[in-house]
Amino acid sequence: MENFLSVKDVEDIDKLIKLGLKIKNKPLRYKNKGRHKTLVLLFFNPSLRTRLSTQKAGLNLGMSVISMNAAQGWKLEFEEGAIMNADKAEHIKEAAAVISQYADIIGVRTFPSLNDKAKDYEDRVIHNFVQYASVPVISLESAIRHPLQSLADMITIEEYKKTERPKVVLTWAPHPRALPQAVSNSFLEWAKTRPFDLVLTHPQGYELSEQFVEGVKIEYDQKKAFENADFIYAKNWSSYNQYGQILNPAKEWMIDDEKMKLTNEAKFMHCLPVRRNIVVADSVINSKNALCIQQANNRTFAAQAVLKQLLE
Ligand code: SN0
Q1: Is 180 in the pocket of ligand 1 (CB under 6 A)?
Q2: Which of 35, 43, 222, 279 could form a disulfide with 173 if both were Cys (CB 3.0 to 4.6 A apart)?
């Protein structure tokens, strides 16, 4: 693996999931793998789980970890040929090259603008880091993907599945703010490669980008989608076609007990942070079938599996 930006960077997905589970079983198994190596994590946007779990993953491998809130420093210029006479103090070309002098691996977290679809879907911040850094780059969530979250989700499903081919449903859920499509895009991209009966359900107007939904079964009736499901993965996203907008609040799409009763005693999954009683009813997220905390725990082992492969 050269960089970790999406599932496409992974040579053997099954092997990476198994490695995550092996590490979970004994987190300090490779505790000297990263000795005298430095992991630099740059956050252009806030993070709780990604920051702490990736930091812990690096520490479990013996790495030194430096985290930086990049949004608080000066602004970086990404435009080729820019005349830099405004507020941007440094070009990505120098910044990525300089950080590479201190880091053996660079992690980058960035969110989309949700205004300019073409720019967001170019995923320029992360791709520019790859282009101008001289060390491997790992996505800590980019404008359009969140691969470490998805790997943790695949590890979690592997742990809790009761059949060889579980029915896995990604359902849109309501939210008061316009959110990125990154978690959902990535979830589909990873889930498609797994032996799942995969179903996507959302209200009309919340269709995701064709590059992520290609080959995925879409069911507009949420209740029908839930029938016999083994895993319900809930996530809000703003519209892709009417880019970044909340078209229809669709409050009736909240996940509640009545809908969960239609499933095959499904496990409930969410990447967190979650708005209780908007996205999901207390009774569902408080139940023994909710896996959110286990998902968050698996973030460490997902990051550790990826860092181990990058170190090699
Ligand atoms: C982010 C998102 O991409 O949807 C991070 C997910 C890992 N979610 C939020 O920012 C939620 C913020 C809120 O106000 O609830």
Answers
A1: yes
A2: 279
